[in-house]
């Protein structure tokens, strides 16, 4: 390994930070030794209607996976994000909204936000939404998305946010899977000047009888003065409602429902290595304690700071670090509708300058895209307000880290590389900015209460500086409790591989200092531009096409996206390979799943490398896609070893 550079904590930063190294050590130790006392204390950062008397009640035993935190306490997440701030910070800005069009923005105070949430809460109740019902949100990055999440939380409904880039088919599956009664969407979304017809996608999704069976109402936000496509919206009077019609007359008083700590707050679908995406269930108390505490300490959020996370609310990062964490902390959170390259590549810099952003949290894929444009990509934007930078979603390569530090952080801002997952609810491994020295590419050390370990494939725990499968040995409050409607799958996926531990699906290395370096997924999950995708999902979309007999999908290193999607396809008899067919297959996957799943490379393969028992040997396909076929390993067990030569000869990624 090449020499690793260490960036020590800036003593000046540490002096003002919430947590310095001594404090980190002491708090970490207590959090592990006595989790009940530690979390019992930190749970008090929220306002509880009935205080909890029990703190941790958790078991990772595969015969009895049972995770509960603060189980006899009652509270409401929207109350904690809004009402409790009204007295002290009613007039403070809660959400700064920056539109896709740089001339559009809006500042919403805590009082405003509270009012809007109450109106929608009452409107949803009037539409028959009750505690425990699932509401699907399929929305652009507009304030109403946050309002809708909080309105659900306020009345005890469970939201399921579906990323606006997903296809009608993907949306239909998620409406059906969650048995969702009502969908909130908008007429159009606008990103990078491009208009996407969200409402029309919902209409399409609801032509699927399985989804239509559950969904009774569609509430549509009018995405104000956007350039319309000119098309009339299709409207179904029995089902469709304008958001402004149902909220305008609604009362601004709506008491927050008293919920148990373990009542569900939301479902969020994410990809796994097998089967359909799974709806991970997060509950109210533990999730909110963890999201708010990590937000405060990881970003060293201080009173009055302007904090910006560039994620989409369709992903877990948007849930925990645009909406719930910051608002529970009474922060000012910036919500950005657009993309980094519109109207030009300096947009991130312009927004930082315009709103005097202090903490900026984005993904390596965005950093690499900017980096490609050169050192002056942010133009003459004034970045002097920045105090801290964050990274999330995939491993950040040291070059991108260095560039981020030098060009965006101007050499003075600590970088927090935050490793976590939809399943974990909040940040798990991260350098606290006043406490932990950083090494470009390492997520460094565990957050309070998190016990990472490395195990070999047999489940033996490895000590010292080694590589292994990353597991977590005990529960933390933000952890997902189950897969919606399929607890057995939850147990199977996360608790049966390495007994007594939560299996992350990631590999990692630990160095001499005990720092963790995430090496990427060890299962069949891809991470394309920070978006998680199961190879199985893409394969099943492909084989649904009439021309495809068999498909195998693997990842390969991609300069911008981190990983690209490499597809091997065997055609049905009677179909000829052609450029048109390739294009068609690409469009097919886009329309089945969404543009983010669009294959980068499609190789037509007359045969797949299979074992004699008929299993595709993905290891070989991965190597060929990586253009690393010198080390194919043992191919003697293949049913027909000659297919490998053909695959190598026609390989598409020649590095
Ligand atoms: C928050 C989020 C989770 C997967 C995770 C890992 C990868 C996320 C990372 C990282 C290296 C980081 N990942 N953050 N890898 N360093 N800082 O991204 O959730 O969409 O569920 O993805 O993303 O592979 O297992 P999610």
From TrEMBL:
GO molecular function: acetate-CoA ligase activity
InterPro entries: Ac_CoA_lig, ACAS_N, AMP-bd_C, AMP-bd_C_sf, AMP-binding_CS, AMP-dep_synth/lig_dom, ANL_N_sf
Cofactor(s) for this UniProt protein: Mg(2+)
Broad class of enzyme this protein falls into: ligase
Residues that, per the record, bind CoA: 191-194, 317, 529, 590
E.C. numbers: 6.2.1.1
CDD domains: ACS
Keywords: Acetylation, ATP-binding, Ligase, Magnesium, Metal-binding, Nucleotide-binding
Binding site for ATP: 393-395, 417-422, 506, 521, 532
Residue ranges annotated for the Acetyl-coenzyme A synthetase N-terminal domain, each copy included: 24-81
Span of domain AMP-binding enzyme C-terminal: 537-615
AMP-dependent synthetase/ligase domain segment(s): 83-474
Gene3D superfamilies registered for this protein in UniProt: 3.30.300.30, N-terminal domain of ligase-like
PTM comment text: Acetylated. Deacetylation by the SIR2-homolog deacetylase activates the enzyme.
Positions that bind Mg(2+): 543, 545, 548
Modification type N6-acetyllysine: residues: 615
Reaction(s) catalysed by this chain's protein: acetate + ATP + CoA = acetyl-CoA + AMP + diphosphate
Pfam families reported in the protein's UniProt record: ACAS_N (PF16177), AMP-binding (PF00501), AMP-binding_C (PF13193)
Role this protein plays: Catalyzes the conversion of acetate into acetyl-CoA (AcCoA), an essential intermediate at the junction of anabolic and catabolic pathways. AcsA undergoes a two-step reaction. In the first half reaction, AcsA combines acetate with ATP to form acetyl-adenylate (AcAMP) intermediate. In the second half reaction, it can then transfer the acetyl group from AcAMP to the sulfhydryl group of CoA, forming the product AcCoA.
Family membership: Belongs to the ATP-dependent AMP-binding enzyme family.
Protein name: Acetyl-coenzyme A synthetase
Protein's organism: Marinobacterium aestuariivivens
